[in-house]
Amino acid sequence: MTAAPDPLTTTAAPPTTAELTSRFERAFGRLPDGVWQAPGRVNLIGEHTDYNEGFVLPFAIDKTARVAVGVRADSTIRLLSTYGDQGMFTTDVQGLDASAAKGWTKYPLGVMWALQQRGIAVPGLDLLLDSNVPLGAGLSSSHAIECAVVSALNELTGAGLAAEEMVLATQQAENDFVGAPTGIMDQSASLRGSKDHAVFLDCRDQSVRLVPFETEPAGLVMLVIDTKVSHSHADGGYASRRASCELGAEVLGVKALRDVQVADLEEASGLLDELTFRRVRHVVTENDRVLQTVDLLASEGPASIGALLDASHVSMRDDFEISCPELDLAVDTSRMHGAIGARMTGGGFGGAAIALTPVGSEQQVRNAVEQAFSDAGFKAPDIFTVAPAAGAMRIS
Ligand code: ADP
Ligand code: MG
Questions:
Q1: Which of these, 357, 366, 364, 351, lies nearest to 387 by C-alpha position?
Q2: For residue 121, what is the domain's CATH number?
Q3: Contact (CB, 8 A) for 347 and 234
Q4: For residue 128, is it within any domain?
């Protein structure tokens, strides 16, 4: 769409904070009041469990959105991104309107709107965004932007919201301003994540516990294999999976599938039709796998969770049926060439797979996956590493 250099390639070094600040100064003719950053996230395990009031285990990654922000004396808002060639977007903080927001500007504007809904007076401001979270790869580049912005505004307005409240504000921004029916996993990881930890989130009561997840000392790297595939039936597939889960819960007489245990599955198989039973079995076993992963990370460390990642993938492939040939190939090839566990991550029907890999096998896995994709006639995947990193913070 644009010939401008792409700062979102996974190899390009992002500009330093000083470079970002001087870019802000060139664009807006003044210095910013500060720079805030918020990471993207990878879901380690716990897929399609969130809307069943279950458990998820994402971690904040070492790829971040950063915003340089300067408060203005008037009510004008000026927004600029280093990405692409979209130019400056100007609007007014009074009467924020989703239909007037263009492209990425709906994320910062949505956050401002959600804060206004909470009675917080949002000032006019100048904002420069720079992000190296790959777009649309399932790493939640949109929440990275929102969480950076909400962190900045929380401080600049003196609102003093707790992390839990910022999570809900960004959810409201996504749901009611952007129009994406997302839960709270992504922003919980981005706002509440911590270096060398995963974020164990109970989607029923929204409580969070940080679980040690240190890949480097264990001699492991987490590879992300972005298949670059986005299947057109993703939306319909998501809706029908949700519907199956709701049906399953209704027939089994529980509030949500969270309330069904692995030991209940045998009885459930007699009560549900074959398809609904498999959908239910995925959710119930996946919740159990999250709990097992949390226990194993604490007791034995990341080298012990490979089999759970593998089992999660098989369950999504066979029971929930949300994988695709590219994801299966990425997972199988990684496993065959040295990864100790691999699974698709995210909503499915495309997007990315993760492969927990011994450092010494990283290159072999990369080469094998690239070769396998080429042999299969698939689009070349984008392969990169992520590390469990800090959550949102002020950096300047
Ligand atoms: P995901 O959150 O999984 O990456 P989304 O579709 O929710 O995918 O969000 C991607 C959108 O976020 C893009 O279409 C774009 O509007 C916006 N976006 C992400 N990063 C940037 C950036 N650096 N500059 C401008 N827009 C961005
Ligand atoms: Mg998103």
A1: 357
A2: 3.30.230.10
A3: yes
A4: yes
pLDDT digits (tens, 9 = 90+) for 28-72: 999 999 999 999 999 999 999 999 999 999 999 999 999 999 999
Contact 81 CB / ligand 1 (< 6 Å): yes
Q: For the chain, what is the domain count?
A: 1
Inside any domain, residue 309: no
* 247 within domain boundaries: no
Q: Does the beta carbon of 64 sit less than 6 angstroms from any atom of ligand 1? A: no
Nearest-CA residue for atom 24 of ligand 1: 83
Report pTM. 0.94
- C-alpha angle 51-46-238 in degrees, rounded to nearest 5: 45
Ligand 1, atom nearest to 106 Cα: 16
Q: Is 87 in the pocket of ligand 1 (CB under 6 A)?
A: no
Contact 24, 16 (CB under 8 A): no
Residue type, 236: G
**For the chain, percent helix, then strand, then coil, each to nearest 5?**
45, 25, 30
Q: Domain limits at 26?
A: 17-212+390-394
CB 349 within 8 A of CB 376: no
The 10s digit of each residue's pLDDT in 248-303 is 999 999 999 999 999 999 999 999 999 999 999 999 999 999 999 999 999 999 99
Q: Residue 103: CB within 6 Å of ligand 1?
A: yes
By three-state DSSP, how is residue 144 classified? helix
Q: pLDDT tens for residues 86-129?
A: 899 999 999 999 998 989 999 999 999 999 999 999 999 999 99
73 domain-assigned: yes
Q: Whose CA is nearest to atom 16 of ligand 1?
A: 104
Q: How far is CA 361 from its chain centroid?
A: 26
> Active-site positions?
186
